[in-house]
Amino acid sequence: KAGVTQTPRYLIKTRGQQVTLSCSPISGHRSVSWYQQTPGQGLQFLFEYFSETQRNKGNFPGRFSGRQFSNSRSEMNVSTLELGDSALYLCASSRDGTGYEQYFGPGTRLTVT
Amino acid sequence: QQQVKQSPQSLIVQKGGISIINCAYENTAFDYFPWYQQFPGKGPALLIAIRPDVSEKKEGRFTISFNKSAKQFSLHIMDSQPGDSATYFCAASSLSGGSYIPTFGRGTSLIVHP
Q1: Element (H or E) spanning B97, and its range?
Q2: Measured by CB atoms within 10 angstroms of the end CB, which terminus of chain B is less buried, N or C?
Q3: Do the strands A108-112 and A10-13 form a parallel or antiparallel pair, or are they unpaired?
């Protein structure tokens, strides 16, 4: 069974640009969560989607947004990129959306210059 | 404000030794406590988790000890192996909108020398 896949794996953007990251959950999983991982702030929750609805949102500015499609695939978008947005962005999926067992993808490494 | 405090930041043990990582939390709304293991270039992987109604949970060489009154929990890795060398994150989760949302500790980098 294929795991969570994220594309692209690496991305370099310039300050002020916007970026879209993609996540394909494990087949049959209905919930997708996004996390930001940085050396300074550690692992932080961004948002969670279940059946195309955002159920939870972390403490991030409105520049960070996401969506989930009917096939459970998810995208997150960051607009007006700042240097501090450089991070590893991780996607995790779970089957039943309880959050008990989350399976993480390898992440997208975003560098903002 | 760091809601989940994890220590130590780094840990070096010899093969066969016991690795102990500690976490503490303040928010009593947390009621699910998973531990994750992360290897370089990979996403975190769920290792073991505990609910506050039990004081200990063991899975193979990994044991979580939980002290509800002290709001502390710890991961013990028995007979540590070089393959256990990784970064370990504790998390404390609270229920929101039907899902447990984790707050992570800052991580512990474990190195097991052969």
Answers
A1: none
A2: N
A3: parallel
Contacts for B45-54: CB closer than 8 Å, 24+ residues apart: B45/A103, B45/A104, B46/A101, B46/A102, B46/A103, B47/B75, B47/B88, B48/B75, B49/A100
Distance CA A110, CA A98 (A): 28
Contact call for B101 and A101, based on CB within 8 A: no
- Please report which confidence band the pLDDT of residue B1 belongs to, taking 50, 70 and 90 as the band edges: low
User: What is the rounded average pLDDT for all residues in chain B?
Assistant: 95
Q: Do A100 and B100 make contact, defined as CB atoms within 8 angstroms?
A: yes
Angle at the Cα of A94 from the Cα atoms of A86 and A103, rounded to 5 degrees: 55
Beta pairing partners, A12: A111
DSSP label at residue A97:
S
